[in-house]
Design brief:
This protein has 356 residues and is α/β, with parallel strands linked by helices. It contains six helices and 17 strands. It has helices spanning 153-160, 201-209, 248-259, 269-278, 318-326, 329-341; strands spanning 40-44, 51-55, 68-72, 74-76, 80-85, 91-101, 104-110, 120-123, 128-135, 141-147, 186-189, 213-219, 242-246, 264-267, 288-292, 307-311, 352-355. α5 (318-326) packs across α6. The model is unreliable at 1-11 (pLDDT under 50).
């Protein structure tokens, strides 16, 4: 039974454990649904609290021609590299988080204790080499890569890298493109913006055909987005920064739709974080580019999002806190309990919900 407890963002009563819930392991989706838009869709009305059940292909029925649909067009790179220490040939895994400059990346490495400054790691029999330059405050590494001039780093990453999947997915993904949205365009993410995985080209065409404008923004997703909050006080949690872009035409289109009585329908928490980063106090969006570590939790006012399409998130995560800020914690957890009872599929490859 979920215990209902109210709090505000500034209240000392808010605890990470308030965002916990029970989930049977068999409801953690291991494989994607085919076709993409045949996943289930829970629809939640923020005003009435009413919950209804349908499928993702029902989405056009939930939109109007005044609405704007905002998506994150980042593309997941094959960021997982398996190699060996040059000195001992011991196995090494390097997971790229984000590029600092041309051939220098921040990364997570395994085994961390053995990869100190100056260590050289080889990939693909020496086609690509990485030298550990420094440690980060979070325990990661700064890695500088070198390779033969006849290659580019992107060539070698496509050749040697693997698509990183969340650790709760145990099954092999037969088609790596199923961990990309159909509109993925700009390389840079270590994880997919998973709410967008449900769209097909046909569904997008149908949505555009009814007059809904589809607007693209960018946030390169880092693994820190999905990291559970470990401190008992969520306000002690440190968010990792992620690169974002909000173009002038995107901001103008969203502002115009809202001014004309339409809704900003946001696909995913990553997209919502871009909008809230770029919104002023009145919810008006302004173009911007840079790094955001915005943390949205209950008590923080969501200003620029009118409806949110999102997957079901891990307990104790900042993503669950974000949707609790958009709706409210008690209603969100009640919806999650209903999803468990209705046997929805959870997490990255699972079903979706629309809160409006």
């Amino acid at each position: 039974m979920i215990q209902s407890r109210a709090f505000t963002a500034q209240s000392e009563k808010m605890r990470t454990s308030d965002f916990d819930y029970a989930l049977p392991d068999e409801l953690i989706a291991q494989t994607p649904i085919e076709p993409r838009d045949r996943s289930r869709l829970m629809v939640c009305d923020r005003q009435s609290g009413e919950i209804s059940h349908g499928y993702f292909f029902d989405l056009p029925k939930l939109l109007t021609n005044k609405d704007v649909l905002v998506v994150n067009d980042t593309r997941v790179i094959p960021a997982r590299l398996i190699g060996s220490k040059q000195s001992t040939h011991g196995a090494v895994e390097v997971l790229l988080l984000h590029r600092i400059k041309l051939n220098v990346w921040e990364a997570i490495v395994k085994p961390g204790a053995r990869l100190r400054e100056g260590t050289v790691v080889e990939f693909g029999g020496g086609l690509l080499r990485g030298t550990i330059m420094d440690m980060t405050d979070a325990g990661g590494r700064i890695v500088e890569f070198s390779y033969d001039g006849k290659y580019t780093f992107e060539n070698l990453l496509d050749k040697l890298g693997q698509t990183p999947l969340p650790p709760y997915i145990k099954e092999k993904l037969e088609d790596p493109n199923r961990y990309q949205t159909v509109y993925a365009a700009r390389d840079g993410s270590a994880a997919a913006p998973t709410a967008g995985l449900h769209f097909t080209p046909e569904l997008l065409a149908a949505i555009e055909g009814m007059g809904v404008r589809i607007v693209k923004v960018l946030l390169h997703v880092g693994l820190g987005t999905f990291r559970p909050v470990s401190s008992d006080d969520p306000l002690e949690h440190k968010m990792h920064s992620e690169y974002f872009e909000m173009a002038e035409d995107a901001a103008s289109a969203i502002n115009a739709a809202r001014q004309n009585g339409g809704r900003c329908v946001c696909v995913g928490t990553t997209t919502a974080r871009v909008l809230e980063t770029c919104a002023d106090g009145a919810g008006v969006l302004h173009a911007g580019t840079g790094w955001t570590d915005i943390f949205i939790y209950p008590g923080i006012r969501v200003k620029a999002v009118d409806a949110l399409i999102t997957n079901f998130h891990l307990p104790r995560s900042t993503l669950l806190m974000l949707i609790s800020a958009f709706w409210n914690r008690e209603s969100v957890l009640n919806a999650y309990r209903a999803a468990v009872e209705a046997r929805y599929r959870f997490y990255s490859l699972g079903d979706a919900m629309m809160i409006m």
